[in-house]
Amino acid sequence: MEVRDFRVIKSEIRVLGVDDGKFTPHTQGNVIVVGVVFRGGCWLDGVMHTEIAIDGFDATEQIASMINGSSHCKQLRLVMLNGITFGGFNVVDIKKLNLATKLPVIALTREKPDLDSIREALKNLPESEERWKMVLAAGEIFEVTCKGKRIYLELAGISLVDARKIVELTSTRSSFPEPLRVAHLIASGITP
Amino acid sequence: MEVRDFRVIKSEIRVLGVDDGKFTPHTQGNVIVVGVVFRGGCWLDGVMHTEIAIDGFDATEQIASMINGSSHCKQLRLVMLNGITFGGFNVVDIKKLNLATKLPVIALTREKPDLDSIREALKNLPESEERWKMVLAAGEIFEVTCKGKRIYLELAGISLVDARKIVELTSTRSSFPEPLRVAHLIASGITP
Known about the structure:
Number of helices of chain A: 6
Helix content of chain A: 25-40%
Strand order of the largest sheet of chain A: 3-2-1-4-7-9-8
Largest sheet of chain A: 7 strands, mixed
Radius of gyration of chain A: 15 Å
Oligomer: homodimer
Mean pLDDT of chain A: 95
Largest interface: A-B, 18 and 17 residues
């Protein structure tokens, strides 16, 4: 999907923040993934969830289904992911997620993704080459400063200019966007 | 526990909002109960959870353990419950919860609790007299107006004057306090 510029970014733009719950690494089973609908950086408007396989290959598909099947879908303007790996190394292909949902996607991390370490870690998993391709498919990693702190962005279907504006707009309580801060609090707070 | 007046009510008073998730009525099993730490009516500071038995007798104990075992416990100043029945007719004894947590408790509902209907419904459950006593133990039901809408309060360890102030203070997005609005969105959003 091509990059489409936002004509206008409303202060109450509806953003979905996505994060995963706690789980025991390298086990079989599923982990919950929570989606939080936020109005800009202001308030919570809804919560949705799905499950993905730990170290599996279904994160992109399950998150897309969660979004497209939600009653909030038509109001959403953007998806923010807490990085591109969920439930261990279940990698989200952000370009496919962008295509499947028709929504721009921003994957954010506080730490710079260390591609060498990721590649090494992937070698311990089946189908490591396929996973590695999905990591690379996220494209360029942009370093930006938000409220005085560095964060790292990977983008699909959105320009860096617009992405920075929306990250700034939604980072009302910290240097990290509220939809992701709250998705993290919920996903970790509801898992054992 | 006696009623203790608040010396001062800070705008960012930490309030725990508690609500239950979705479940199939009259089945055996557990339902998730979510606690949401809110700073006044402003923003979410943490999430905790527990499980209770559908139509069981463990709601008071499980919610007290969830609160007392939480890292947020010392910062909390008040507990708000979405009514006094969770997971069907698992009744919270708000006076016992007040004693067990040393925190004032407000149970709120939008609809006036219909005691006659509750008593009738309880007859279909085992130990209905014990449940009925717990319903009555909540004491007087106060009708108050918040942002132009009627709501109903049952109180333990807090005066009506203070309870009204805190309900008004935390009702920033609707006529219902944010800790309960958000607890409801989360608990229902993470259950199937």
